[in-house]
Design goal:
two-stranded antiparallel sheet, about 55% helix, 7 helices, 3-stranded mixed beta sheet, mainly alpha, 5 strands
């Protein structure tokens, strides 16, 4: 019951701020040319979430938390958004950045994502959302550390990375954004090599 209350509260708040909400019955939604589970875009004031997956509600809360960050002026300046986009382009080798800039921007993104995830957990606990909190925190930690993997290897983590490596994570939020747990890199590389071996041309 409290989940429905939270959903109504989120949708009403977004409507109040004229945020367009796209709840798509699909596995992914498109944002900046990528297929992802959800996004909040302050430029178009749009929040999109793919709701075909049964775990879509925490994704919605996460993107709503990014909206709250924007509202509070956190990680939301035009410069920061431009840098976050440039870092994604750098990962895909579409632009160049100095090592110092990549490190600085990566840490900013990790801090932004970790802040959102902590707020998700707080909301889920307060509104008795039916998720496994410890498992969610492990997933959050894994997600945040994918950005460090990408910084080190300058390539995107393959799909499924978070599920593959989350068992390596603590069930409390990490404070060290730079250290990948033992086995993380090997598992991600194994997923990538499996993906490559099953690709047909």
């Amino acid at each position: 019951m409290l989940e429905a209350v939270l959903l109504d509260k989120i949708l009403a708040h977004l409507k109040l701020w004229n945020v367009k909400v796209n709840l798509a019955f699909a596995d992914t939604v498109q944002f900046d040319g990528e297929d992802i589970s959800g996004f909040f875009d302050q430029r178009s004031m749009t929040l999109g979430v793919a709701i075909k997956d049964e775990n879509w509600f925490p994704v919605l809360i996460h993107e709503y938390c990014h909206f709250l960050q924007w509202k509070q002026g956190k990680w939301s300046s035009d410069k920061e958004i431009e840098e976050f986009t440039k870092r994604t382009e750098w990962v895909y080798k579409k632009t160049e950045l100095s090592d110092e800039d990549v490190l600085r921007i990566t840490r900013a993104i990790q801090a932004c994502e970790l802040d959102a995830e902590k707020n998700v957990v707080e909301m889920c606990i307060h509104h008795s959302v039916g998720i496994d909190i410890k498992d969610y925190i492990r997933e959050s930690n894994a997600y945040v550390l994918t950005y460090e993997y990408e910084r080190i290897f300058r390539k995107p983590c393959p799909p499924g990375t978070v599920d593959i490596v989350k068992h390596l994570m603590p069930d409390e939020f990490i404070t060290d954004l730079a250290t990948l747990p033992t086995g993380f890199i090997d598992l991600v590389n194994k997923v990538e090599s499996t993906d490559e071996s099953t690709t047909t041309v």
